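Protocol check, entry for the methods section draft. Step 1: assemble the input record (protein sequence plus ligand SMILES). Step 2: submit for complex structure prediction. Step 3: store the structure tokens unaltered in the notebook. Ligand used here: adenosine-5'-diphosphate. Step 1 record:
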Amino acid sequence: MILLKNIKETQKHAESIAKKIKAPAIILLSGPLGSGKTQWVSFFIKKYLNQKNLIVNSPSYSLVNEYKNKSKTVIHMDLYRLSKQDDFESIGLRDYLNDKKNIICIEWSENLNQSISQRQCLKLKFEIIDENKRQLSSSFEGGSR
Ligand SMILES: Nc1ncnc2c1ncn2[C@@H]1O[C@H](COP(=O)(O)OP(=O)(O)O)[C@@H](O)[C@H]1O
Ligand SMILES: [Mg+2]
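Step 3, stored output:
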């Protein structure tokens, strides 16, 4: 468990993961609205793709946004509005999982009705402590890959 005392610490955490991670990888982010999931992903993508000025918006309407540079790709999904009938195929997740170049970040993955845990995932659970503080629990789960 880590206490992120302010947004700068959230940035440092996301950037440290971005420096270490290798594709393919899956990052599942959970926690209430406003807990910092999109902020974390934004810092992560900018570092991983080495594009400081990139604008990363929440894909809560589009469900998915794709970011790339010459050699790397990040898929950013937000499943807040996912409906019960949607499965891996209908949201394109199966294809994203099959592409070994991808780092896949998923907000509200708890809305998936299918388990993703045949693949190892980095799970990040955010909690709001106060206006600027967030608690972050991270773990690796699943995986036979
Ligand atoms: N330590 C922190 N880490 C992340 N976000 C923070 C922190 N402190 C304050 N915030 C604010 O909380 C909000 C988080 O929003 P967002 O990342 O969109 O949340 P979510 O995607 O979980 O709904 C932002 O307005 C951000 O500025
Ligand atoms: Mg969000």
